[in-house]
């Protein structure tokens, strides 16, 4: 076995020295405040049975897809799922990818072209950043959820591209893409989408929304864009199935032309083995369950979010938490060692809550990330927050 190169050993040593060295955790029987299974669908046995029924109905017995979607892997369940997703999420078309990471890398490495500009929220997910880096367009960040900074960056980009300030009078084919998340994974907050849509409308920009942490929760089991009635204003939406939907995979929602383009140019779709029939059937089964039985799960999650915020206020912890009305709540505990210490204390008390360390977040903004679920009890929520309060005191 070859020795690890000195440069790589040095990078590991640096991580170890600043208390940010990662390792794979062992599963433990603790109260779940960590997973993305917001609605509890990953643990629903009825969905497992429905998945089997769908496979039997289709006569699909292959364990694997056997190839990429452009070769042998585009089995019969794919068009069924994509047709359902387009209708359910009020989109012209849907294209399924193996994961949210694959969807974002595929989109941002292939759609923005040389001469185009991508403006992204400074807290955007790593998969979007990676996709942008792989592409040929220039990119600039704007301050988190800051509409004024976004307007400034759009105007600056238009001048840099030598474009007028309106789509109707543009004389060349340069484009501006703006990307944000409907619910941010590390802060749990949301941008003000309606004025952002107006900026894009006025300046002729294309808006892309990553709906990973909103999929299945808002808009009667759809997403935040659907809830707000903005579906016709969005160039592309990325929805994922590994969080509230309790499965795996993702899809890009947009026009039929965008779908055709991605099939031809998104390398993360073209050059990988497709999802298995079982995985695709599982996604369909989750949606069918959500349509018939999901209302109580969604209401349960929203009630727990409300109770969590009420307990924060009652315990006087508002200044410690980032304001959020989503399933994600973050307690700022500056310093990797300090936040790991509090996480360890809560884990010892029987709660599965994880620290988010720098460099994943900025130094000084290390945090505990609490993920709420439909299946958490009010007593569990109250108890863990009292434990936090006692520790901080």
TrEMBL record:
Q: PANTHER family in the record, alphabetically?
A: 8-AMINO-7-OXONONANOATE SYNTHASE, CLASS II AMINOTRANSFERASE/8-AMINO-7-OXONONANOATE SYNTHASE
Establish whether keyword Mitochondrion is in the entry: no
* Co-factor(s): pyridoxal 5'-phosphate
- InterPro entries listed in its UniProt record: Aminotrans_II_pyridoxalP_BS, Aminotransferase_I/II_large, AON_synthase_class-II, PyrdxlP-dep_Trfase, PyrdxlP-dep_Trfase_major, PyrdxlP-dep_Trfase_small
Q: What is this protein called?
A: Aminotransferase class I/II-fold pyridoxal phosphate-dependent enzyme
Entry keywords, A to Z: Aminotransferase, Pyridoxal phosphate, Transferase
Where in this chain does the record put each Aminotransferase class I/classII large domain? 30-386
Q: Which organism is it from?
A: Flagellimonas algicola
Cite the GO molecular-function annotations of the record.
Answer: transaminase activity
Transferase listed as a keyword: yes
Pathway noted in the entry: Lipid metabolism
Q: Which family does it belong to?
A: Belongs to the class-II pyridoxal-phosphate-dependent aminotransferase family. BioF subfamily.
The positions making up the signal sequence are: none
């Amino acid at each position: 076995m070859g020795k690890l190169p000195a440069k790589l050993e040095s990078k590991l040593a640096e991580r170890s020295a600043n208390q940010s060295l990662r390792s794979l955790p062992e599963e433990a029987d603790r109260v779940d405040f960590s997973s993305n299974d917001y609605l509890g669908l990953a643990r629903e046995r009825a969905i497992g049975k429905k998945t089997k029924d769908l496979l039997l109905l289709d006569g699909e017995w292959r364990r694997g897809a056997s190839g990429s979607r452009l070769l042998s892997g585009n089995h019969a369940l794919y068009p069924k799922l994509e047709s359902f997703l387009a209708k359910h999420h009020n989109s012209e078309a849907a294209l399924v990818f193996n994961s949210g990471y694959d969807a974002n890398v595929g989109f941002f490495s292939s759609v923005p072209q040389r001469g185009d500009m991508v403006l992204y929220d400074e807290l955007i997910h790593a998969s979007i950043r990676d996709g942008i880096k792989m592409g040929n367009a220039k990119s600039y960040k704007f301050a988190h959820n800051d509409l004024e900074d976004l307007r400034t960056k759009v105007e600056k980009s238009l001048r840099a591209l030598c474009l007028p300030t309106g789509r109707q009078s543009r004389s060349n084919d340069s484009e501006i893409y703006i990307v944000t998340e409907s619910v941010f994974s590390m802060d749990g907050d949301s941008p003000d989408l309606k004025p952002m849509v107006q900026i894009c409308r006025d300046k002729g920009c294309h808006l892309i929304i990553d709906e990973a942490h909103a999929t299945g929760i808002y808009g009667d089991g759809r997403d935040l864009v659907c809830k707000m009635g903005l579906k016709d204003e969005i160039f592309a939406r990325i929805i994922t199935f590994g969080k509230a939907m309790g499965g795996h995979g993702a899809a890009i929602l947009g026009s039929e032309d965008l779908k055709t383009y991605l099939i031809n140019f998104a390398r993360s779709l073209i050059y990988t083995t497709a999802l298995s029939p079982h995985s695709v059937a599982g996604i369909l089964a989750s949606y069918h369950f959500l349509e018939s039985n999901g209302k109580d799960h969604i209401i349960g999650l929203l009630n727990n979010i409300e109770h969590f915020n009420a307990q924060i206020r009652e315990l006087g912890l508002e200044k410690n938490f980032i304001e959020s009305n989503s399933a994600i709540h973050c307690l700022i505990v500056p310093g990797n060692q300090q936040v790991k210490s509090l996480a360890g204390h809560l884990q010892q008390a029987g709660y599965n809550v994880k620290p988010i360390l720098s460099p994943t977040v900025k130094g000084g903004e290390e945090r505990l990330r609490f993920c709420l679920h439909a299946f958490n009890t009010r007593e569990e929520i109250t108890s863990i927050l009292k434990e936090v309060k006692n520790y901080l005191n």
